Amino acid sequence: MLDPYARPNVPMPAATPNRKKPLILVVDDQPININLLERKLQRENMDVITAANGKECLDAISRVTPDLILLDVMMPEMDGIETCERLKKNPDTNTIPIIFITARSSKEGKLEGLNVGAVDYITKPIDLDETLARVKTQLRLQEIHRENLELQKRLGESRRTAAVGAVTQGVAHNLNNLLGVAVGYLDLLKTSADNPEMVRRSVALIDSAVDRMIDIIRQLSTIASIERLPLQPVAMQTLLDESVARFREEFKILSPVIIRNLTPKGYTLRTNSEILESVLGKLLINAFESLPKGVNPDGKVEVEARLDTTDEDGPRALLQVLDRGGGISPEVADNYFDPFITTKTAVGRGLGLTMARHAIRNLGGDIELLPRAEGGTIARLYHPVT
């Protein structure tokens, strides 16, 4: 006579990414519970595999990844709590939703299971309809999660495609303009060979156009770079001082920059100083160029560093460049980080903020521009703290 409570020998479904039926792993040391759950789930068009304890559960998951685990808490050899902890510590299995099934009904017992990573808790005796409803809810949540991940992936690809298109269009437009400048002055040279002053002026302007084209190409090479940037600890005060010194040297601006270091004394930031100094330089030149012509820039541009503790993901280093210039132009307020978006009239401008944000994002941070209450702009650079 057949034992109605015996565990059937269910073949394990093949581990295939095209599997359409949900795969549920039922782990319980009581055959009657396994039988009841198995039959109920199979009637709902779900595949089921089973295990009698935690060790069998881990062994099953090493061969196939279920969509959800119904896990008994009280089992011999390895109980459900330890099994769940091991699954959550493993990056290959820590996203599998686990619903605990147990005879414990106390608040403390439920909290113990939820604290180790379970998504839900069902108490014995098992109500099959309730269990099925909870399983379906978690499967729907998993499906929504997968769809969100796919949507984020597609959105990221769309953004990259759009960015490449915008950069390509901007590069073509700006290089054509710069080439037009160079060709125009070359034509002028041909007709002005007997005018030394005109020759010198034309050559200088051609040199300037060529330098701008070289700068655009150099910046595009930086955008294309996807290498992991080396990081090292740098004293914040040293970083600020050297950034301003490098900015003055590169842009030939001798006006003083007010530096305020509000981080703890001796504070160090683990970063790539070469990249961060370059980014601060771009923010500083943007600040100086925003000042109205004829205004003495002394004391008009400031650099401030402090720790920001307002982010829910933890503290960040916040470096700010503050100016008292004309503020954010309404013409570019919504897209000032787009390539070649600029209010400057000089041909070939407009990659500075694009490059600055790209570089700091490679370091795990970000940049935002905000209007300053007393007039001007605040450029905020956020950098992760490790």
Helical residues, percent: 40-55%
Backbone shape: elongated
Total helix count? 9
What would CATH call the architecture of the domain at 227-386? 2-Layer Sandwich
CATH homologous superfamily label of the domain at 227-386:
Histidine kinase-like ATPase, C-terminal domain
Structural class: alpha/beta
The total strand number stands at: 12
Assigned CATH class of the domain at 227-386: Alpha Beta
**Fraction in beta strands:** 15-25%
Description:
With 386 residues, this protein is of the alpha/beta class. Among the domains are: 104 residues, 3-Layer(aba) Sandwich (Rossmann fold), CATH 3.40.50; 160 residues, Heat Shock Protein 90, CATH 3.30.565.10. The protein is 47% helix and 17% strand. The protein contains nine helices and twelve strands. A five-stranded parallel sheet has the order 2-1-3-4-5, sandwiched between helices. The N terminus is likely disordered.
Summarize the structure.
By secondary structure, the chain is an alpha/beta fold. The chain has helices at 31-43, 54-63, 80-89, 107-115, 128-191, 196-224, 236-251, 273-290, 352-362; strands spanning 23-27, 47-51, 68-72, 98-102, 120-123, 232-235, 258-261, 268-271, 301-308, 316-323, 366-371, 377-384. Helices cover 47% and strands 17% of the residues.
